[in-house]
Amino acid sequence: MLDEGNGKAIRAPGHDNPQVSSNPEPPAMSVHHEVLTALDEVLSLGGRAYSFDRDTPLLGAVAELDSMAVVTLITALEDRFGIVIDDDEIDGSTFAGVGSLVDFIDAKLG
Fold first, then answer.
1. Suppose 39 and one of 11, 49, 78, 103 were both cysteines; which one would form an S-S bond, judging by CB atoms 3.0 to 4.6 Å apart?
2. 9 Cβ partners below 8 Å, 6+ apart?
3. Helix (H) or strand (E) holding 34
4. Where in the chain are the domains?
5. For the whole model, what pTM was predicted?
6. Mean pLDDT of 23-34
7. Share of the chain above pLDDT 90, in %
8. Closest to 37 in 3D by CA, of 26, 25, 52, 27
């Protein structure tokens, strides 16, 4: 706020040190959380994926993750992270567990 009389800035009470940024940075994206979100959405797990940790097995352990779901999940991950995943980059070990999938995405982003 400016004092019209002298053109100097004055501060409103309670605003002694405003933290205003013209270009605020978005919060850092957690790859782990975003992968869990993609899993939950694609597999329609109703929030169940948020209880998964790095050691949670996926292929063969999560019934909803069949071959068609893997294709849909790949597309969702590409869209979510802005990456392209080529067929020759992935195999069953990529989807073996949450940790291997997160590590794969981290490497693609890296």
1. 49
2. 1, 2, 3
3. helix 31-42
4. 31-109
5. 0.73
6. 67
7. 73
8. 52
How far, in Å, CA of 101 to CA of 54, rounded? 9
| 35 in Cβ contact with 105 (< 8 Å) | yes
Number of Cβ atoms within 10 Å of the Cβ of 108: 16
- Alpha-carbon gap, residue 96 to 86, rounded angstroms: 18
**Which pLDDT band holds residue 18 (cuts at 50, 70, 90)?**
very low
Q: What type of residue is 71?
A: V
CATH architecture of residue range(s) 31-109: Orthogonal Bundle (1.10)
Backbone angles phi, psi at 72, to 5 degrees: -65, -40
